[in-house]
Every structure is written in structure tokens, then in C-alpha cells.
Queue: 2 jobs
Job 1
Amino acid sequence: MKIYDNEPLAPHTTMAIGGKAKKYVEAESVQDLIDALALAHGESMPIFILGAGSNTLIHDNGFEGYVIHPAFKQVEWTPQTDGTMLVRIDAGANFDDVVAESCQRNLGGIESLSGIPGSAGGSLVQNIGAYGQEISECFVSAQAVHLDDLSMIELHPHNMAFAYRQTALKVADNPFIVTSITLRLSPFDADAAASRCEKHGFKRMALTKPKTASDFRKIVLETRKSKAMCYDKNDYNTHGVGSFFVNPIVSGVDAQRLNAASIIKNHKPMPSFPTEDGKTKLSAAWLIEQAGYNKGYCFKGASLSEYHCLAIVNRQNATCEEIIDFAKDIAKRVYLQFRIQLHPEVVYLTPQGIEPIPGISPEEAEVTGAPLRPNPLFL
Ligand SMILES: Cc1cc2nc3c(=O)[nH]c(=O)nc-3n(C[C@H](O)[C@H](O)[C@H](O)COP(=O)(O)OP(=O)(O)OC[C@H]3O[C@@H](n4cnc5c(N)ncnc54)[C@H](O)[C@@H]3O)c2cc1C
């Protein structure tokens, strides 16, 4: 186990923002992780688990405790007699390396998740998703350490409360630290994959009908790169957390109201997707654009990506405060235009621990929103 004092956290995140951690531990094994948790407990210090930092925004004053980084990365592939494959992935493994290998093996289940940065542990906690697939769909179990007594426990789907970019572990007082995850993958089904992508608006995939999982991955990566949605340390358009806000899910009535207004204003319908429980998922990127922000819109050191309105990025030495002010500005305008509340997808780490991003609420928008002119069409 390696322990560093006053370690700057910015280089450990894709946003490259944030102050120092009082202690930073690289846990090279599960035992290291348990030892680090015991150390923090002994010193009555809070802990935060940092995977690849691709969905974490860190406060300018850092974190007054132990940041523990799982650095164990083994992956085991076990073929099953029914033709499926179980893959057990250590929490610190780069999840996209596993996706790449699963595609080489022509397996299906996580091929649409190609190119999403992050550790296996973080990817499970976030229930990552893209192009019609979520990691929850092939999740079998996870090994985890229980913070109360540092015992090992196995988590199953019914423990996870999976929802859109949400799990039982994505809460401030989550007592489980994931040490490995197990997924079940099946032989790649080209037709199912193509129709899933068509359903989720990924037309190129449906048109070209890739025959193997590797071909499929190539097209996903190409598409993601064209939107700067693959992390690249030389391109600030990728120095964010992917989607900063989740796509709002609203009632049918709200969706119809916005759709009708969009047809009057733009002469075309608003992008929307039905959910399984009869609601409608809206495009946060579309709402942001309609509220007056174009791609590349700058706000101090922050900006929107030049390729995607939903990605807030660190354009030029942005501070965490600037990112938050920008996010508040966006949420406020969207609320005033549409009466739709945007919710951050990113995890916000303050010196005391995980907290909601302050000031992103309808009440705040109403109070501070006086200078903005709501568009009456959308109200
Ligand atoms: C360019 C870019 C594109 C992206 N595109 C997508 C996309 O298409 N779809 C999508 O869903 N996401 C996307 N993301 C977001 C991000 O990649 C995922 O959420 C990612 O899987 C997070 O993993 P991580 O290891 O980086 O998590 P971190 O940011 O390190 O951590 C996130 C949260 O998980 C917790 N955590 C991490 N590891 C563990 C563990 N072992 N045990 C318990 N808790 C843990 C942390 O404490 C924190 O609360 C994108 C991000 C970027 C930068």
C-alpha cells in the first residue's frame, strides 16, 4: 500500500479540478483497501473511494480525509456450459479494457458501453449506460467490504436498486466499497444490437449492421470520438465527466406540453424517449441548447464542449467554483424556460464528503431568476 500526504487530486480526475486530499492511498490489493479503511477509522477521518475520477467533481479545497484508490485490476473469464461467459473484474480495472476484450471474444452485453472511461467499481456505482445498454443488465454480483465491520459481503441485483444512472451505492452514506464485480455476457447478437441502437437513435449502427462485436465497437468509438465523448488528455472538450446532468424524466403531460411548443417554435418535435414506466425521458442537451447555450459556450475557465451541449468541461484552468456557478446558471435558465429541473449526474466531493451541488433547485431558480425572460411558449 502506498500512502501520500496532501496529494493533489486534480490529476486523478478527468476534469483536472480540485484541491488536495489529506491522505491518498493506492490500495494494491483488497487487504490494502481494508487496512486503509481501518487506518482512517482509527484516526476518525472520513473516506472517499476514487476510481478513475471520470464522474467526480472535487472541491477547490480538496478533501479532509482518506481518498482511497483501488489499484487492483485482475480480470477472470470463465466460460459457462450454457454458452455464456462469466467475467469477474477487480474494482480498479479499466472497464473499457474489459469491454474491448469482450468484443474481441465476440461477446455481447456491454459492447454499447465501448469508450466510456472509468474503473469497474465506479462504472457499477454509476450504472453506466450508452446506446441502449446499461451495466445493470448483465450484472450478476459484486464483492464488497462493509464499512461498519470491514467484513466482505456479496451484493446481488436486488441489493443494488438499479435505475437510470443510479444505484443504492451512489449515495453519500453508502456503506459498501466494491472490490470486484461479476457480469454475465452472451454471444454477440448482431440483429438485437442493431435494433437496440436504432431504437435509441443510433441510426448509423442500424444502417451498417455490424456483424461482429468488434465491428460494433469500432462504430461506437468512432461516434463517441466525433462527439468528444472519449477521454483524451490533449483535448479539453473531453475534460469533463461526460454528461454533467442526467436526462430529465417527466410525465406524459409535461412532455406533450414541451413537444407542442417545440413544434410551434422550431417546426420540429422535441427529442424524447418513452420509459418503461410510461414516462418520457427528455434530452437535457436539447433543453440546454434551447435555453440559449450553444456548443462551446464559455463561462470563465469552464465551457460547454464544442461537440456536445451536455458536457461541461474544464476549458482553461477552471476552478470547481466556476464549474458549479456555470452548472447553476444552466439549471436556472433551463428551469425558467421549461419548468424542468436538471439534476447533476456527477458526484461532488467537498472537504467533508459527498454533497449535493448547492443552488441547483427550482426554489433557487425562482428567487434568483428575475433578470431572465422565460419563453412563454414553453411554460
Ligand atoms: C469523456 C467522458 C464520457 C463519458 N461518457 C459516459 C457515458 O456515455 N455513459 C455513462 O454512464 N457515463 C459516462 N461518463 C461518466 C463516467 O465515465 C462513468 O460514470 C464512470 O464509469 C465512472 O467511473 P470512475 O471509476 O471514473 O468513477 P469515479 O468518478 O472515480 O467515482 C464515481 C463514484 O463512484 C464511487 N466509487 C468508485 N469506485 C468505487 C468502489 N470501488 N466502491 C464504491 N464506490 C466507488 C466514488 O466514490 C464516486 O462516488 C463519461 C465521462 C467522461 C469523462
Job 2
Amino acid sequence: MSAIFIRPIRIDDAADLHQARIQPNVMLYTEGMPALRLEATQQFINSLGVDDHTLVAEVDGKAVGVASLHVHSGKQRHVAHIGIYIHDAYQKQGIGRALLEALLNIADNFLGLIRVELEVYADNTGAISLYESLGFVAEGRKKKARFRNGQYVDILFMARVL
Ligand SMILES: CC(C)(COP(=O)(O)OP(=O)(O)OC[C@H]1O[C@@H](n2cnc3c(N)ncnc32)[C@H](O)[C@@H]1OP(=O)(O)O)[C@@H](O)C(=O)NCCC(=O)NCCS
């Protein structure tokens, strides 16, 4: 595969990331709905603030994946949550790991965060094993928390606590 560049997100990444976001496997394991619009991704990028650390993976000039570290406020200032998706055609090639390692570097070495957390569909075994390999531990299970493809599915809470 071509080289992977990890860099900050730009507003002109919206069209590429929209394409990634509507891929079947991404839709299956994220909050995406069938009528997801490009404008939703544009709004996401426009809404990012100083406590949102969002990186994309660029391959051959195209943004093929994105991951965000959203830092909380007040008594949760030491906490952030993560979101991530990679275009179906670029999964299982090390891009997710590269993006997560870059975010954890920000969390550990620039923000001094203690707790990084995320939610993952309980049947998303690939993502769960990636998170576990980076030190995340399952803390709990929210039963029937989502309705997807005609079925209720559970959500796992995972966190990496230093
Ligand atoms: C989950 C996701 C972010 C992982 O990114 P990726 O680029 O595909 O993963 P990587 O290639 O970096 O894989 C890293 C590790 O995860 C594991 N892994 C990833 N996908 C896997 C799969 N489908 N089955 C089993 N293991 C898998 C591998 O063990 C791999 O380990 P290795 O580095 O020792 O080879 C990506 O597949 C994705 O966007 N999926 C759809 C949306 C999604 O699930 N988002 C997360 C919501 S919580």
C-alpha cells in the first residue's frame, strides 16, 4: 500500500470522509444512518474546537480515515473520549492503529490525560481487539443500547486508565 500520512483534519476532507462514513462496514459499527448527508460531516468538521483533536489518515491524496480525541471539561478535564472510522477498502492495513497511537500520544504527552474512553458495539470484535492491544479494558455493557439492521445490539464501555 502507498504511504500513510497522519495529519490534522481540514474542511476539504469532508467529501472523502463522507464516502468513508457511508461504507457498509463503517455504517454497521457506527451511528451512521442510511440517509447520512455530506453536510453532517461538514458540520462535524466546522464544529471542532480547541478540545477536539482530530486527525485523518491520508493515502494517495485522499482522506481514508479519521479519529478524534474529545477532551471533556470541568471535573472531567482529565478525561477524553475517542471516535474512529476507516473506509472499508482501507481497513486491516494498520491505519486504525496508527491513528489511535497518534491520539494516545497527544493524550499522554501533550494533555496529561488520565482516562481515555470509548464505546464500541459488542460484536465489533476487530475493533475490540485493537483497543485491547492499546491498553483499553472493557468496563461495562449497555444491553440493547442500539437498534441496527432490525436487531437490538449491546454496547461495551472501554477505557484506558493510567
Ligand atoms: C475498527 C477500525 C477503526 C480498525 O482500524 P483498522 O485500520 O481496520 O485496524 P488496523 O489495521 O490498524 O488493525 C489493528 C489491529 O486490530 C485488529 N483488527 C482490526 N480489524 C480486525 C478485524 N476485522 N478482525 C480481527 N482483528 C482486527 C488486528 O488484530 C490488528 O492487529 P495487528 O496490528 O497486530 O495486525 C476499522 O476497521 C473501522 O473503521 N471499522 C469500521 C468502523 C468502526 O468499527 N469504528 C470503531 C467504532 S468503536
